[in-house]
Amino acid sequence: MVFPMELLKLADWLLCQLLAGSCYRAAMRVKNYGFLITNAKNPSFRSPPSSQAHPQPPQSLFPPVTKCSLQGRESETLVCDIHGTLLRPQSFFPYFMLVAFEGGSIFRALLLLLSSPFLWVLDHDLKLRTMIFISFCGLRVRDMESVSRAVLPKFYLEGLHAHAYEVLASAGRKVVFTSVPRVMVEGFLREYLSVDDVVGTELQTTGGYFTGLVSGSGVLVKHRALKAYFGEKRPEIGLGGPSFHDHLFISLCKEAYLVTKEEAKGSAGSVVLPRTKYPKPLVFHDGRLAFLPTPLATLSMFLWLPLGIVLAIFRLFVGIYLPYKLAIFLATLSGVKFKISGSKPTKSDRRKGVLYVCTHRTLLDPVFLSTSLGQPLTAVTYSLSKMSEIIAPIKTVRLTRDRGKDGETMQKLLSEGDLVVCPEGTTCREPYLLRFSSLFAELADEIVPVAMDAHVSMFYGTTASGLKCLDPIFFLMNPRPCYHVQLLEKLPRELTCAGGLSSHDVANNIQKQLADALGFECTSLTRRDKYMMLAGNEGIVKEKKKKLF
């Protein structure tokens, strides 16, 4: 009976909002305006002198965030919101869409998209409750935790407001108050921005699932939460957006600064935080969507989807059944951008094949290399779905992670012909190279490094927690997927194990060569690090657990 009663309460609340919302908002604006003017005249409240002498509309009562000094803030407390302050996008809709699509399903995402026109006419509170209900109702708690850990941080980092982040980083203690669900932002704020505490809207759960309703305390009201949290004490710094609720929130601080809509848009690009200044390097992330799903961008994706599926099947058919030159021509005609540089190496030992050592961007790396060379190759891999194995146009062989057995397998394959290996052991989407396994260096003297890079605009063709059998399909569904194959010079004999170097030195040397060719950064991270972060496991599928679903 609890759930039906909650629905009745929600329906009653919606009716009250629709009947009285406009009058209530008008009264609150008048009230807030008077409150802010009173605070502006308070001598203990710091604001521009001009606004004290000549009261203006509330937005001019506070200086912009660019006026905040960053010096000597180590002992001070800062309060702010992530929505409209730390993040440049003024709408939180894209982040709810990420939860709906990546944590839920494509049908949940479609429902949220269809609701977007109605969200425009709702007030902030009702809009937030609606997006929460659609995105979270019936969603498993563990799925939301996965999205919060592996998907959202990338988009949050890309949306950070540079000036607001600099002020946040300068403060000693940081507390974020937000009306959006705490479960969506707390992990990112604590891990990436070193925030000390996060106070946000709490959601109801039952049996490991979200009900889609907020807790009994309702949507968090920031200025009330701040008073309850600090009591009579006033934080030193407050950052807020242009809304009346934010003005009320930051007016309770000793110093208050605004992030205006004009600054958030950042026409000059000065408010966009560059990758080099990220608080923590973004090496791994998961999820299928490669774009920020605003309503317009999401609509474009759904309109493209039917054509994209047909196009992916066509491109797959071309790659499997047609000759190399014709396949390249038709793939390019269908929108695939294919760039090849370097020349095919010559063999010095006819009894043994050439070992191609590639960076690993998608499961299609060996296929694109084989097409570039115009010859069949054999690829070895640690994990390959049955579907990918069936549709692969080249021979694929699974490795066991037993160094001795894998070495024997690769030696045998090299005696039969050319071999492709990706020593990172897993894919990486960002401009980083993972640690190279040194096994390949012990098996061959004729080694050709190959710098592979792939770019997509709509869907990622890799996943750590989803269905790997769909990876090639998702990659080929992109409107204009791009692949760059760069063949480097064959490794001189003196830089191989035959020249006296250890296998680890050879592997590290090739990793550096490939990183320099691509403009990437070398790391010591491994496959295990990736899967522990993104999926909470070591990325190893035992034979007895292999199932289709």
TrEMBL record:
Q: Which InterPro entries match?
A: HAD_RAM2/GPAT1-8 (IPR056462), Plipid/glycerol_acylTrfase (IPR002123)
Q: Which PANTHER family match?
A: ANCIENT UBIQUITOUS PROTEIN (PTHR15486), GLYCEROL-3-PHOSPHATE ACYLTRANSFERASE 1 (PTHR15486:SF0)
GO biological process terms, semicolon-separated: phospholipid biosynthetic process
What is the residue range of the signal peptide feature? Answer: 1-20
Subcellular location, record wording: Membrane
Indicate the segments forming the Phospholipid/glycerol acyltransferase domain, all copies.
Answer: 354-455
User: What would you give as a GO molecular function for this chain, any one?
Assistant: glycerol-3-phosphate 2-O-acyltransferase activity
Q: What organism does the record attribute this protein to?
A: Eucalyptus globulus (Tasmanian blue gum)
Q: How does it sit in the membrane?
A: Multi-pass membrane protein
Please give the name of this protein. Answer: Phospholipid/glycerol acyltransferase domain-containing protein
> Which keywords accompany this UniProt record?
Acyltransferase, Lipid biosynthesis, Lipid metabolism, Membrane, Phospholipid biosynthesis, Phospholipid metabolism, Signal, Transferase, Transmembrane, Transmembrane helix
Coarsely, its chief localization is: membrane
Family statement drawn from the similarity comment of this UniProt entry: Belongs to the GPAT/DAPAT family.
Keyword Oxidoreductase assigned? no
Bilayer-crossing regions: 289-314
Q: Which CDD domains match?
A: LPLAT
Q: Which GO terms describe its cellular component?
A: membrane
Instruction: Tell me yes or no: is Transmembrane among this UniProt entry's keywords.
Output: yes
Q: Which SUPFAM superfamilies match?
A: Glycerol-3-phosphate (1)-acyltransferase (SSF69593)
